[in-house]
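Let us work through a complete example step by step.
Step 1: write down the sequence.
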Amino acid sequence: IGFIPPLLQGVSPATLVKVNEVGEVERDPATGLVIVSKVGEPGQMLAKINERKRFDGYTDKGATQKKILRDVLEKGDRWFATGDLIRESKTDRGVYFWVDRLGDTFRWKGENVSTTEVEHILITASDDIIDVAVYGVEIPNQSDGRAGMGYITLCCKHENFDLVAFYESISSQLQTYAVPLFLRVATEETNDRKNSESSSLEENNAMTSTFKKKKAMFKKDGFDPKKISVQRGEEKLYFFDKGKRKYVGLTDAVYSMICRGEIKL
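Step 2: predict the structure and record it as tokens.
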């Protein structure tokens, strides 16, 4: 992002606040106020709403309310939630770095990718797909943002899923930067077993919260075969091979090559 002079805080107050694994701001249980991020720690950037810096909102009142946070640093104040995860340099105070986008978008190669849009395209690409979750994953030693990854649940066996037809369908409807570079594919049987193991969690959380937590878990796993149950054959991992113009199996060896930058994404 660059350098933000301290004097600018008097004109356009902004702050970085801590968020949890699903992107919700964290509050101090004792005061109810938001917890400010420490220097060097990523936090969502908030901009204070006052007479000088107004926020008139969107045409959708519900969307407007989601963007306004109250009781942030003091009771009664109002702040605009930018949705951007930012980090201040520990060594160069006032220098800020962009980390990630929160919510239903992520950034890849300078472009914002809407997970909702991509999910819609993916789930309608094949009758064999019954559920989809799209999210961005970090690529070690690369600074292009987060690469797109899709978690797909099939109602058929892995060997019966036509990956070629699937790619042809989604690539004809999505911009190149929005096509998922990685796929994590499970069968309905695998998901039923996992869901039964976490049924207590499902019962104690709203559907939206549970879905966000699952996405957070998928993000944490990334595209590392060692963190995913590919060894037992329960799930399959694929990455998009630009040279072959198709999805191919993601092995430990290929994963290491990607992490070393030997395979360009």
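Step 3: interpret the result. The radius of gyration is 21 Å.
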